[in-house]
Every structure is written in structure tokens, then in C-alpha cells.
Specification:
Blueprint (H helix, E strand, L loop, with lengths): L3 E3 L5 E2 L6 E6 L7 E11 L8 E10 L6 E6 L5 H8 L4 E3 L3 E7 L6 E11 L7 E10 L6 E2 L13 E4 L9 E11 L2 E11 L7 E7 L12 E7 L11 E9 L3 E3 L2 E3 L3 E9 L4 E5 L14 E10 L2 E8 L3 E8 H5 L4
Parallel strand pairs: 2-6
Antiparallel strand pairs: 1-24, 3-4, 4-5, 5-6, 7-9, 8-9, 9-10, 10-11, 12-13, 13-14, 14-15, 16-17, 17-20, 18-19, 20-21, 22-23, 23-24
Length: 334
């Protein structure tokens, strides 16, 4: 049996938007409701450095895991007030991106995390502040925005959270996509985000995977953590979890432009007790048959013992579903 099966067609379709991505599903609704990032405008090409997407978050719903419909724009109380505190004459907010949903079993509260990017209004500086935003409520219909879970500065960026289980210290060593600039080259890195309380500001932890520090070509330029599998899907021991990691080849330079490499989905093993990545697959795990440059995983839903559905967006344009088989995936692990 193959480790995964690519579903036909798109998991989400709506004539209002040419590009949709980053699906996040709500476990409290049995994964029948969720949130998706819809691109309202795009400048440039996703394969070339410098493109800009402006985005909004919309609700989605579906009776099956195969097909979802887009609803209305997600309403979050206190959004304007929070953004007013982050915007400035120097920085320009370009829209909420890349949602992740976490429902706290202890409190019953729904937490929504999302990327809050601010670009320097002086386009010649190519600077950005990438915050990990946060909103909380009883459900997706009653969310209220707080200040970011992780607020960016000149040396710290945060997006694309991967929620880890609570460790023996009573905290979560979550994973985020962060960044590092070396010799003028921008790398996306995987970093720990320490959360003692999922509703309060987190702390930046150590970088646990830097593409430039490993000789793994498929993830040699950019790395971003994807969802972790539960132990009922794959169990690799106490304090450890298997998950998917998104990786991109190192940038190339053609005709004076920086051209991105292929973005694929791989596997990794995370020690959430220590906050360390033990292993990253030497080869990609999934590359969509229609992808020109990007296959990027954002959500996993376990459907029955040994089987589940992974959602990824292709070329930052549409969402695809894949059925994963735990037994075959285990054969790929060290």
C-alpha cells in the first residue's frame, strides 16, 4: 500500500476567489467547520521572490472531508483595535493569513492562531514584521482578538504554528516557522515557541531546524512545521511525535531575479519533551502531481485507526486532500 493517495479535484471551491489556501478545521465541529485563507489580490508570481498576497480569513463548512464550501468573512471582535496598535507610519498590514485552530480540552475555549504580516511601507527596504496572531472564544462565532501570541521584532518572526502536546513540565514546546538571514540569504527556520498558557503571550525558544545547517537538498532553503500526528495514528515512544514538515529547495538566481525552488511535504520526528527535532526525512513525502512549485501541508484529520486525511495547498492557489496510511508511513521512518 502506498503511504498516501492523492484525491481528485479540489477540496474547497468558490467562484469569488481565484486563490485559496491554508485550510484549518475545527475539531469541536467534528471537522465539519473551519477557516481558510482567501487571497483578495496578488502581485507577482509565487515562484519568484517579491510577490505580495493580500488576504482575508473566511469560514468554511462541509458535510464530508472531501468537499467544503466557503461562507462569509470571519468576524473577530477587537480586530481593528488590535491592528491599530500594530500598524504605524512605517509598517503596513496586508491581511490575516494561515490559520490554525486549537480547542482546549480543559477550558473548552477555541483558540485561533494566524499570521499577521506587516510590510515596510518603503518597498526598497524589503523588511517585514511577521507576528503570530491570536483570537479566543467559545467557538469560531465568538472570537475576540488579543495581542499576538508572538510579536515580531527585527530579530524574531513567527508564523505557521504546530501545536505540541503538553510535556512533563506542564508547558507546550510548540513549533513555529521563523527566519534567519545569513550572508544576505533569507532562510525559513523551525523554532520552538514556549507556551505555558495557550491564551497568553508565548516565548521565543531555540531554533531546532535550520535548512543551511543540514545537507538535505529538498529542504535546503526553507522549512516550516506542519501538523503532528497523534499517538493513536503513529506512536514512536514517550515524549515524541511524528509529523509532516514543509520544505523548500534552496533559492536559485536567474536573470537577476531570485527564483524559489520546489516546496514539498516531508516527515519529521519531534521530541516535544525536550523541544528537539530528532530526524527529518532525507526525501520529500508528498509532491502534488499538479504542483508547479508548492505543495504545503496545513491540516491533518485522523479518520479511523491507521488512516487519516491530510490537506495541503498547491501553488498557493487551491487546497488538495490526501489519504494517509500509517503502516506505510511507519516504513519510511528510521
Amino acid at each position: 500500500m502506498k503511504a498516501y493517495e492523492q484525491h481528485a479535484g479540489k477540496a474547497v471551491e468558490d467562484s469569488r476567489f481565484s486563490h485559496m489556501m491554508a485550510i484549518a478545521l475545527d475539531p469541536s465541529s467534528h471537522y465539519k467547520k473551519g477557516v481558510i485563507r482567501c487571497i483578495t489580490s496578488r502581485e507577482g508570481d509565487v515562484a519568484t521572490k517579491g510577490y505580495i498576497d493580500r488576504s482575508e480569513l473566511y469560514t468554511i463548512s462541509g458535510e464530508t472531508l472531501e468537499k467544503f464550501l466557503v461562507g462569509e468573512r470571519l468576524q473577530i471582535k477587537n480586530e481593528k483595535e488590535t491592528l491599530d496598535r500594530l500598524n504605524s507610519e512605517e509598517w503596513n498590514f496586508i491581511g490575516l493569513e494561515d490559520p490554525d485552530i486549537f480547542v482546549d480540552d480543559k477550558t473548552g475555549l477555541t483558540h485561533l492562531y494566524f499570521t499577521m504580516p506587516l510590510l515596510n511601507r518603503d518597498s526598497t527596504k524589503e523588511q517585514a514584521l511577521i507576528n503570530l496572531g491570536h483570537a479566543v472564544g467559545r467557538n469560531l462565532d465568538s472570537l475576540e482578538m488579543t495581542m499576538p501570541a508572538l510579536q515580531a521584532d527585527a530579530n524574531n518572526t513567527a508564523k505557521e504554528v504546530s501545536i505540541a502536546p503538553i510535556n512533563s513540565k506542564g508547558v507546550r514546546y510548540n513549533l513555529i516557522e521563523s527566519s534567519s538571514i545569513e550572508d544576505g540569504v533569507w532562510y525559513s527556520t523551525v523554532r520552538v515557541a514556549i507556551a505555558a498558557d495557550m491564551g497568553m503571550p508565548w516565548q521565543f525558544g531555540e531554533t531546532v531546524f535550520h535548512p543551511n545547517k543540514h545537507n538535505i537538498p529538498w529542504i535546503g532553503g526553507h522549512a516550516s512545521p506542519g501538523p503532528l500526528f497523534s499517538k493513536t495514528f503513529i506512536d514512536v515512544g514517550e515524549g515524541k511525535a511524528v509529523g509532516v514538515i514543509n520544505g523548500r529547495e534552496a533559492n536559485k538566481h536567474k536573470g537577476g531575479k531570485t527564483v524559489y525552488g520546489i516546496f514539498s511535504v516531508g516527515l519529521f520526528i519531534y521530541d516535544y519533551e525536550k523541544g528537539t527535532i530528532d530526524w527529518v526525512s532525507p526525501e520529500p513525502f508528498i509532491h502534488d502531481t499538479e504542483a508547479r512549485t508548492i505543495t504545503f501541508a496545513s491540516q491533518f484529520v485522523e479518520t479511523k485507526p491507521g488512516e487519516g486525511v491530510l490537506y495541503a495547498h498547491v501553488d498557493d492557489s487551491f487546497v488538495r486532500a490526501y489519504t494517509l496510511h500509517a503502516e506505510s508511513i511507519r516504513a519510511l521512518l528510521p
